[in-house]
């Protein structure tokens, strides 16, 4: 695995697509006129703050469980990686994305967020192929036990327990 791919994976490509999509959603929001979700600026700000807090918490927990120098060199199942294969990305498309959509208070953002989720599943495939090449059967089993962005709470395969 090359240095850039090892450190950043699919993150930059996914971030660019997400940012462009968010900007386009802001731009076309007035033309679409899909309506407000809740109509409360205070509630919207609270959702955004909760989303940012959730995202930052997930990122910090991820970096603690898998420091930068170990990325692509070790397969970890500690911390959030016990439940998610890609907790860094999940933080952005999960809590932060939902918080942003509810802050914007427009249905177009929830529709965009819903459409963005499968796009990230496509983007992440190249990173997962590299991980499979690097870690082989261990990574294949890990994939069977954990969700990409959403924990598999009701999976027949329990999350891994050994580091």
TrEMBL record:
Coiled coil: none annotated. It holds the Pfam family PEMT. It is found in: Endomembrane system. Keywords: Membrane, Transmembrane, Transmembrane helix. It is a multi-pass membrane protein. Gene3D superfamilies: 1.20.120.1630. It comes from the Bacteria. Its main location: membrane. The chain crosses the membrane at residues 7-30, 42-63, 83-101. This is Isoprenylcysteine carboxylmethyltransferase family protein. It comes from Candidatus Lambdaproteobacteria bacterium RIFOXYD2_FULL_50_16. The keyword Transmembrane helix applies. GO terms for cellular component: endomembrane system. Signal peptide: none annotated. One of its GO terms (molecular function) is transferase activity.
